[in-house]
Amino acid sequence: MHTVEQLVSGELDGTTHLYLKQGLAEFPREIINLADSLEVLDLSDNQLQDLPDDFSQLKQLRILFLTNNCFTAIPTVLAQCPKLEMISFKSNKLQHIPERSLPDQTRWLILTDNHITQLPDDMGRLYRLQKLALAGNALTALPESMASCQNLELARLSANKLESLPDWLFQLPKLSWLAIDGNPLSTNPLDPSLFLSPHSHRESDHAEAQAPTIPLVALDDIQLEEVIGQGASGIIYRAKWSNQPDELQGTDQEIAVKIFKGEVTSDGYPQDELLNCLQAGQHKNLIKVIARIEQPNALGLVMELIPSHYHNLGLPPSLQTCTRDTFAPDSKFELKTIVTMLEQMASGLAHLHQHHVSHGDIYAHNTMYNADANVLFGDFGAATNLSKLPTSQRAAMQHIEVRALGCLIEDLLSHCLANDEDRSHITELTQLKTECMQPDLAQRPRFEQIAHQLQQRLQQQ
């Protein structure tokens, strides 16, 4: 972190990264003096409301963070920044996005947690847009021009006021990670049997119907210990029972507890995450939920503690990779290990879609694995209750998620330890990846088919 004093003194001349957090109410003019070098500017957690008219002189600027400020509209000067491609106005007071205010080359746009009711009609000109975060706004529709955003891969539309979604959204050829829960979407009234199963319930009675199998417990009966993980929606603690409920007697004393953060996250509402996690039911490759916490001051899930010999399969995307996971430099996997893990992922995802839940965040960094290639995954922050969608869009959601699995196959193959004997199997797995990622969604395989195909390959190896 830097200071205004350093900036004014000239100490920061020539810097490529600048981070100022000092309760600033006015934009420091000295920043413009960094025009020839500054690539990343982070002015988050200040009180800014506007940018100067000559802001576009920052001709090297690629990344701009203005999270947690006081902007009510996006300054139109941003469109004149020649290299600006990543922009964050998360948690401001945005109500309006003027036409032509965003650079044509925008690649990553974060507008989470604002008061936006409408997107500009010219959104379709953002031809490079890959990642779009709009959760926690008041949108009632998406502009038709966005059908031209053919490079869009990740979209967070949760926690808005969308009563329906356009069909073009479900046909974008590269869309892989989509979250849409927390909207007043109209359920198809013509075929309610499609939306209900012994493990699937309408939103109004969902929590109550799950109560007999997922006990409701008090946080006072749990002793929270160290933090073992955290993400957009909550913090995960190692914990143990201080007073284990009768219905859970006989289960492990050591547990993991996820306490959700605020009212809205980058993925949507915590309550929706909890409900989708419960609706998902149990599967050998899903992190097992054993209880839920629903109190005025705490919403959370009690889960089985993942054994310490499990590790994250990958690392989150970086500013450079945008939508794609990163991996430790020494990450290498045997081909059989890759196929074994992918078969389990496909099986678990088939289970989710059978229970009318899409995951929305199929990534290596959300996946745990051990030395025997056993896989566990969870994190339902971006999940969607598919019961709210028309039949065609519900089917398309699986096609979208299949592309995400294709991305995972591609990532793992790039870290594969292979020998000459593996060549034919790698060719087959590469072909499967291509089928999962092909632009024509209707031609992509379903998770059941993928799981079956991978099972056969395991038998041949």
TrEMBL record:
PANTHER family: PTHR48051, RAS SUPPRESSOR PROTEIN 1 (PTHR48051:SF1)
Start and end residues of each Protein kinase domain: 222-461
Keywords for the protein's UniProt record, in alphabetical order: ATP-binding, Kinase, Leucine-rich repeat, Nucleotide-binding, Repeat, Transferase
Organism expressing this protein natively: Vibrio renipiscarius
SUPFAM superfamilies assigned to the protein according to its UniProt record, in alphabetical order: L domain-like, Protein kinase-like (PK-like)
InterPro entries in UniProt: Kinase-like_dom_sf, Leu-rich_rpt, Leu-rich_rpt_typical-subtyp, LRR_dom_sf, LRR_domain-containing, Prot_kinase_dom, Protein_kinase_ATP_BS, Ser-Thr/Tyr_kinase_cat_dom
Domain of life per record: Bacteria
Residues that hold ATP according to the record: K258
The protein's name: Protein kinase
GO molecular function: ATP binding; protein kinase activity
Alphabetical list of Pfam families matching this protein: LRR_8, PK_Tyr_Ser-Thr
GO cellular component: cytoplasm
Matches recorded under SMART domains: LRR_TYP
